[in-house]
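Support request, priority: normal
Reporter: lab tech (M.K.)
Component: structure prediction queue

Hi team, I submitted a job for MOR1B protein from Himantopus himantopus yesterday, and the status page still shows it as pending. I've pasted the exact input below so you can check whether something in the sequence is tripping the parser. The sequence length should be 176 residues. Please let me know if I need to resubmit or if it's stuck on your end.
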Amino acid sequence: AGNSSVLTCTPKSVITMVTWKISPKVGGPCSLGYRADLNQTDRTNCSDSINWKFTPDRDPTLEIRQVATAHEGNYTCEVVAAEGNFHKTYHLTVLVPPRLTLYCDDHGNPVCEAVAGKPAAEISWVLESNSTPMQEGHDDGTVTVLSKFTAYGTNVTNTTCTVSHPAGNWSQSIAC
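Reply from support: The job had stalled in the queue. We restarted it manually and it finished. Here are the results:
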């Protein structure tokens, strides 16, 4: 999320026509088209963040700027060229790294939160804990995971929370 994504399409020597058909998980479909004989481009229902990276007569690559979860879905490039017709489909999945929050609750127990990640993050503790993580889903498809440290033994003064996620791993220590 937040970065640009570039989807390439099979470049051919002489392109007659190129169409990008986009079917997002949320919202309606959109398309970008280019017709070489008229040197004409067309866009239907696409947001400004989705556009040709270059001029389509030279390179039919698609660029999605400021990728958001709303961009998730299928992206199909269809090329008509002298060599034949070609299709390439991408399934775009957007990763949202969670924000790590570590604090002490009212009872002096460490609480670790992986806030608004996609997919849900995994939380573990460096010292063993009998905590069961709780998950809360959000409307934008992200998930907050909360884990409260509960020590098997006593006299634990300092502990470390580790958050694992496809977008990265983070850890933070706290003394309560």
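The chain has two domains: 5-92, 99-174. The chain has a mean pLDDT of 90. Let us know if anything else looks off. Ticket resolved.
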